[in-house]
Every structure is written in C-alpha cells, then in structure tokens.
Amino acid sequence: STAKVGATTRDTLIQSIRMASDVVKDRGVIGFVVNGSFIDSKSADGFRKCVAKEFSHLYVLNLRGNQRTSGEVSKKEGGKIFDSGSRATIAIIFFVKDSSVPNNTIFYYEVGDYLKREAKLNLLAGFENLESVPFKEITPNHKGDWINQREDAFEKLIPLKRDKKLQNPSIFDINSSGVASGRDPWVY
C-alpha cells in the first residue's frame, strides 16, 4: 500500500474490527453495518489486504447510497439506507474466521442501480440467510482492489519525473515548481 498513516488508520471501524478479531481468536463470526467507503477507496487498500488475509471468508453486502456524489452518479447510488441519517455508502459485512480453512474467499453483493430506500430494505428482508444472497466471488488484485480494479498498463509507462528512492528512468531528470516569485502576475 502506498497510503500513509492518517485518518483512515485511526478510523473507529478499523479499530473495532481489529479488537473483535482479537476477541474471536482462531474461530468466530463478526458482523458490522459500516460506512462502505473502504470497499473501493484507494486509501483503504492496506485494510482490504489485511482483512482478506486474516479472515477465512468475507461476505460483503454493498447497499450503496453514497450521496457525496452528484448528478447521474448520485441517482444511480439510490436512496440512503438510514434516510437522512447518513450520506455515505452503507455496507453489511460478515468476517468469518476459521483457522482450519486454508483459503481466504471474498463474497460480494451490490444492490442494483436507482433503488430507493424502501426497495433496498425489502430486498434485504427477502434474504432468509447468507446462502440466499446472490453473492459473487471476487479475487482482489495485487494492489488490494476488490472492485473497480486498477489497470497495470499505466504503471508500465515512463514517468515524467524521477523517483528519488527508486532512481527509475524518467522523461525529465530534474523537476521543480518553476518560477515562484510570490508576485506571479508581474513575473509573467
């Protein structure tokens, strides 16, 4: 992960999952209704890698509802599960830990586009158990992306500026912020 220690690592969700995981030790089930932004956030790639490795199975029900978007994207997200209580994506996630199971599997379900709050709640009520949810098994990429996986082709291109640590080939040998006089309108 290239993410730095910051607000994401101090998130109460991450801390709660860590504490619950320590309590169940080698075998158990943990369930949370959470802010689902970690599902495809770049800053949560390390968290996704960690839980995918630590738990035997993950069951993620993405109820969407992200209202921190606008226009057509906001309409596609559908209604907010908690009505006016939250503008964030909401997800229900079950973490299953069983040290006797060698594989780590992620099962993912996402509600459809444009669903209103009531339709999402009715959909949830129709699921009798986890087996009745039409999960699809997902395989994370090496960057920890679960959905909306990044393309690797971009990283094969020659970068514009040299990385000081890697000393990789680049188009430009040096870089700077250019002329910065504090009075730029007069300089140009």
Automatic annotation (TrEMBL):
The keyword Nuclease applies. This is Restriction endonuclease. GO terms for molecular function: endonuclease activity. Keywords: Endonuclease, Hydrolase, Nuclease. The keyword Hydrolase applies.
